[in-house]
Amino acid sequence: MMQSSLQLIDEEAEKKPDREIADLGVRRTERPRLVILGGGFAGLHLVRNLEKSDFQIVLIDKHNHHTFQPLLYQVATSSLEADSVAYPLRKPLRKHPDYHFRMAEVQRIVSGDNTIVTNRGTIEYDYLVIATGARTNYFGMDNIKKHALPMKTVDEALKIRNEILHNFEEALYTHDPQERQKLTNIVIAGGGPTGVELAGSIAEFRRYIMPQDYPDLDIEQSKIYLIELLPELLGPMSDEASAKSEEYLQQLGVDIKKDTKILDYDGEVVKTDQGNIPAKIMLWTGGVSGAFPEGLDDGLVTKKGRIKVGETGQVMGHERIFALGDVASIESKDHPKGYPQLASVAVQQGRFMAENLMRLRKGKSLKPFRYKNKGTMATIGRKKAVVDMPGFKFQGTTAWLVWLGVHLFSLVGFKNKLVTFTNWAWNYLRHDRETRLIIKDSQ
Amino acid sequence: MMQSSLQLIDEEAEKKPDREIADLGVRRTERPRLVILGGGFAGLHLVRNLEKSDFQIVLIDKHNHHTFQPLLYQVATSSLEADSVAYPLRKPLRKHPDYHFRMAEVQRIVSGDNTIVTNRGTIEYDYLVIATGARTNYFGMDNIKKHALPMKTVDEALKIRNEILHNFEEALYTHDPQERQKLTNIVIAGGGPTGVELAGSIAEFRRYIMPQDYPDLDIEQSKIYLIELLPELLGPMSDEASAKSEEYLQQLGVDIKKDTKILDYDGEVVKTDQGNIPAKIMLWTGGVSGAFPEGLDDGLVTKKGRIKVGETGQVMGHERIFALGDVASIESKDHPKGYPQLASVAVQQGRFMAENLMRLRKGKSLKPFRYKNKGTMATIGRKKAVVDMPGFKFQGTTAWLVWLGVHLFSLVGFKNKLVTFTNWAWNYLRHDRETRLIIKDSQ
């Protein structure tokens, strides 16, 4: 009786190899198909603004979630839950009748066939938007790629969290003061916003959490180094912001090494042109390059791996292929080398592209992209932040509050805002970080 | 100049092998040393109640966090952030002057030497409390151990979340209906509280999330099976609770197979004495056994892997070794085979043990443990729960609200309570689960 209710298996069918599924399993409808590669800031904000469009929309990303990269450093330093900075990519367009998400890795564009090749099969497009973002750039230094920890994904941020906490645990088990030194030192490569924010957050962890959590360690011995190639931190920001962020980091006890070039790293010692630093952890925020997919003409890709794009968002020489966000270098008078690779640029380009694609469908002419600079900012610690707005610069507590507000407001998903706010309030009031958890096997 | 400020490395010291560190690096003080093995409910509640004791306290756990196991199923089913059900074990006794946590795996007790052997070295004790909990029991079925997914740790719960979501993604890429069936079927082995709660939660995910998230999948095809060896679910609970939970699960479309024995599982097909079920995922909640450390007399360990303990908490024949929680079988008239392996028993025993240890230090006689049964409960879904209190049983919305309140109240850490409440409120109001994230590499 029960036998029949269970599903029987056709042994024959079992053995047949699965043919590759056409168009990643997305069925053609009467709507023109728009394929979007990448669910970062540009891709997500494009999708969200296509709710009323008549496209069949296919979003492809190798993760099933959007990552709010500006807050990854807080995941890495035990301040925020990983899930708060991620947002499910199946969700943004629930009311659109023909929206499809596919988790796949893009391998190649075959523009002659209007086709994308992924690790899960191919898919045809009528319109294509490339928003594949940026990848960590090691500038050809293989040892660094092998031993340093990058921070572009949630998984990488969690790995940093695990490694830092794990090394502190490990430091309790050694007699050797030099080994202990290596285990408690942390080197951060790159003095841009990510490096500065990481350094500040780790320094606050050392100040507020470590003395209570690790009574058996000499906290003074643990050093945090921030290494920057150029003569100042936060290069693209104002001189005031650079100077103040340096002052803040020094207050928190960060060793800042400017004008210093990293030469090599073997997982034990960071070699620089100014001397060596023993450290089991080096966080790499040294640079990014565009994560362009293969298949485009070499002439279309800049030295920094970005795709050359006209001011309408169209890839040069392709009417139906667009690129935006970090991977795109949109031509403009103000920014001849492309707009800076910032979340705010990507968000504005996403919205802009939605409008242009809908104009295209209506037979209207495409508009040129105009960037509205709303300012840049970085936070170093409690009541320590720097903000550059057009014609208005400020630092300190107000800047910090502005930073908090802007990030909370920009965070994708209302639930994420609530959970993040809860964590921040708790951390602020209690000088605490309860997500100092090693979630992985105990080794 | 800068060279000098960087730390130089002594190449010689580098090469010396590290001697094993004595007592896991914990220095002896004038206080008698109490070593506690395990930071689960029993260990954590013991530690928390020793704030005013004169012991040197050393807590050893293989994770650096406590795990609130009753809510792991919500992590596994995308309802809660992983970090909300974990609590840092370095934190509970911040005000005690001589509290030490060590992340290490206990391997053996050498009671003749008053010593514990761990994977990180040995440590001497004056008093020892064994609170190592329970481990998943596969009843000797190696295939099941190899292919089924257990759920005792945060990491295991996250693995379940990743696998379920990943298989749904995978199902989009196949032509073969039987392969698709296997990818979307989920089998839950064990009809105790964990199995029932998992089945209910997955069934609600299928009902509320899948139709919107996976428009390309035929959701009706995805089946959820709950397999129980005995003729009823929730065996230890009342008949009313068993019957009602079954009714609720049927309403949610769970296929319940009682009186069914699982024989084998190869990762593709679950073999039972009533027929076969194709499924790429089998969650195993089939049973636990005590996770007793080696080194105790064989005669001290029961068939279920629990340590025989007198009513004062002392291990039989050992004056200074105690055991509590899931790993302990404390003798009592009401429960000749030991108290049930429940969080509430462990919490009460933790508190009880703190009192007894302090009595011991004052030369007072030890008290016998008395369990105060406050009831048991399980939740199946929205407004669907069952509660058995002594002399009072109820089900439905009230039971569900009681379940929510009790779990929120019991959750360790105020921040965790806040974040969990936020998630629950969101999930309830929006029929949503925003933590449906695959956080791992994209493969």
From TrEMBL, chains A, B:
Pfam family, one: NDH2_C
Enzyme class: oxidoreductase
Catalytic activity: a quinone + NADH + H(+) = a quinol + NAD(+)
Keywords, in A-Z order: FAD, Flavoprotein, NAD, Oxidoreductase, Transit peptide
Domain of life: Bacteria
InterPro entries assigned: FAD/NAD-bd_sf (IPR036188), FAD/NAD-binding_dom (IPR023753), NDH-2 (IPR045024), NDH2-like_C (IPR054585)
EC assignment: 1.6.5.9
Residue ranges constituting the FAD/NAD(P)-binding domain according to the UniProt record: 33-350
Domain annotation External alternative NADH-ubiquinone oxidoreductase-like C-terminal: ranges: 374-429
Similarity comment: Belongs to the NADH dehydrogenase family.
Protein name as it appears in the record: NADH:ubiquinone reductase (non-electrogenic)
Taxonomic path: Bacteria, Pseudomonadati, Bacteroidota, Cytophagia, Cytophagales
